[in-house]
Design a protein that fits this description.
Length: 119
């Protein structure tokens, strides 16, 4: 099995600007708003990043979601189900950037997969 990289982190925040300000002051992390997706994103190294996401019925404070790279989301989702996990968001195209999916592991954690279309 190919090694996986941690490629994205979503940090829920009731006040995204306050969260962005805190992480900038505390850790020097800068963020920028993508108005097309209303996505307050940040980068924490050359290949990984994340976003401060608004709270909602399905997004709760304290429920940080990490995304692992995937060379083949469909194959990974089959393997996840065969191993006792549950698909909670099937493969979904994200513009021309790539595709994502989410699953729940047997202990209740929600984890994301990301398959980039960019090199």
């Amino acid at each position: 099995m190919a090694p996986r990289a941690l490629v994205h982190v979503e940090i829920p925040a009731g006040n995204r600007d306050q969260a962005a300000d805190f992480y900038h002051k505390a850790l020097g992390i800068t963020s920028s708003l993508d108005t097309q997706f209303d996505y307050l994103g940040f980068n924490f190294n050359d290949t990984s990043g994340g976003a401060f996401v608004p709270l909602s019925e399905s997004v709760h404070a304290g429920r940080v979601v990490v995304y692992f790279s995937s060379p083949d989301i469909d194959a990974d989702l089959k393997s996840i189900e065969a191993s006792g996990g549950k698909v909670v968001l099937p493969r979904m195209q994200v513009g021309d950037m790539g595709a994502m999916a989410m699953f729940q592991d047997p202990t209740g954690n929600i984890i994301g997969l990301w398959q980039s279309t960019r090199p």
